[in-house]
Amino acid sequence: AQSVTQLGSHVSVSEGALVLLRCNYSSSVPPYLFWYVQYPNQGLQLLLKYTTGATLVKGINGFEAEFKKSETSFHLTKPSAHMSDAAEYFCAVRSSASKIIFGSGTRLSIRP
Amino acid sequence: GAGVSQSPSNKVTEKGKDVELRCDPISGHTALYWYRQSLGQGLEFLIYFQGNSAPDKSGLPSDRFSAERTGGSVSTLTIQRTQQEDSAVYLCASSFGGLAGGDNEQFFGPGTRLTVL
Asked: Is A43 in contact with B110 (Cβ distance < 8 A)?
């Protein structure tokens, strides 16, 4: 069975600081991993995804995530936060032909 | 329009009434998904359509919920005899391929916010 755990329902960082949003997953087979972002009053937008190959994945808006099989993690990072990064971030996992399972989300706030 | 559209954007209804939520997927996308997003919760899978195959209804929370997809395009999610716990944002997504293509990106609509009084 698949599952996703996002540690911290709310993360607050200062503008210019490092952003780190944590995601751990459980999957019985090699997973596909995703990060989605949801800006206020908008639908979800794919930020980045890992399928196979390089474990460090770069996405839009300067975000990246690293797939660490030994730690069953897929944490999302950005070196320097911008005010426009304030949003809800969802980690998701799917394996083979199964449904995509979403985490409960992390709300990112940016302090001026 | 290039994206997934949903209507209405907001729906307020009284407990016990039926509601219909509509989703227009991206043209050419064969797969369509419905999710529910409750306050403070993640996305809860409801139902999945792929081409002409029988839909995967395993996520529907009760028999008050049903969905159909006409002509392989537009989908309607119907909730009968609405309850206050049905209040949530209902999101629709579509993808070019179905679940067999594990990394097929899902494109999401803006959602319908349902409030049951």
From this structure: yes
Q: Is the dihedral of CA B54, A34, A91, A81 positive or negative?
A: negative
Give the Cβ contact number of residue B9 at 10 Å. 12
Which DSSP state fits A99?
Answer: P
pLDDT one digit per residue (tens) for chain A, 112 residues: 778 999 999 999 999 999 999 999 998 777 889 999 999 878 899 999 998 888 999 999 999 999 999 999 999 999 999 999 999 999 998 866 667 889 999 999 999 9
Instruction: Please tell me if residue A44 touches chain B, with a CB cutoff of 8 Å.
Output: yes
- Give B-chain residues touching A90 at CB under 8 angstroms: 42-43
User: Given CB atoms, is A98 within the 8 Å cutoff of chain B?
Assistant: yes
